[in-house]
Design goal:
Layout lengths: L12 H26 L4 H28 L4 H17 L3 H18 L6 E3 L2 E8 L4 E5 L6 E6 L20 E7 L2 E6 L2
Antiparallel strand pairs: 1-2, 2-3, 3-4, 4-6, 5-6
Length: 189
Amino acid sequence: MDVTDDPVRRLPAGWAGALLATTSLAALCCVALLWLGMSDSSFLAVFAVVFVLGIAAIGWLVPALVAMLYYRTFKLGLIAPAMVAITFALAHTEIPRTVGWALSEGSFERAETQCAETGLIGVYSITRASRHDAGCHFTTDGGFMNTVGIAHLPNDIPADAAVEGEPIQDGQYEYRHIDGPWYRFSQAF
């Protein structure tokens, strides 16, 4: 019998449900990864979401292969990999950070005047605010080994700051310009 003579087989509800469930879990993980990228969140949070995404991928694999190979249904099985590919492509650009900053800039401008606010500022979770000679530093929980956050430096970066792209000495700050007097900072440990 030729493949073209084979009658169309419909994907049973159980297989379709398994694909929908794992695709939905993958979609949730993708949204969470983009949010974490916007908000400069901790490495552990990103790791946890990627771990759950890996579990979703394992759960997706069998029903997707059955749907594609046995039932010749490709659309439903390709949604999750397409979402994950788009998410990882976006995550490796500055788009999530740019969107996060655009949503948060006004809140930071209000918080900068006192330089004492912790908690949620815009989309960023601030663990510490501290005044330095050059300006105000808002520390996030986004660093793995280094302290990272957002700095308001109205008079430009300090002279003793590391030059972007060069090795950072212990305790030294490196700044990357965001907009106006605002910078992302990293302090090496």
